[in-house]
Design a protein that fits this description.
89 residues; four-stranded mixed β-sheet; 3 helices; 24% helix; binds zinc ion
Length: 89
């Protein structure tokens, strides 16, 4: 998402997982000045949707480059591996 400064400040709130909230695999915020010509233009921001890179997590179905990184749980993403270890180990 390419956002104006005040909106970008809200979207960069680390306590909110905007990727999960938006039901997408990744969510990145940049300055609206850097929005490409083919971005969807909204009132306070512009949006570009792209295919995520990585593998599909078998637990949450997110596409993540962290899938396969955890040897004990090689088919899930880092976030799911943490949840599985905390609650199901
Ligand atoms: Zn996952």
């Amino acid at each position: 998402m390419y956002a104006k400064e005040d909106v970008a400040a809200l979207l960069n709130d680390a306590s909110i997982d905007f990727a999960q909230l938006s039901i997408v695999s990744a969510f990145e915020v940049a300055s609206i000045d850097k929005a490409p010509a083919d971005a969807l233009v909204l009132e306070h921001a512009s949006i570009v949707v792209e295919k995520a890179t990585g593998e599909k997590c078998e637990r949450c179905w997110s596409i993540s480059e962290s899938v396969g990184a955890n040897e004990a749980h090689p088919t899930v993403c880092a976030r799911c591996a943490e949840v599985v270890e905390k609650y199901y180990a």
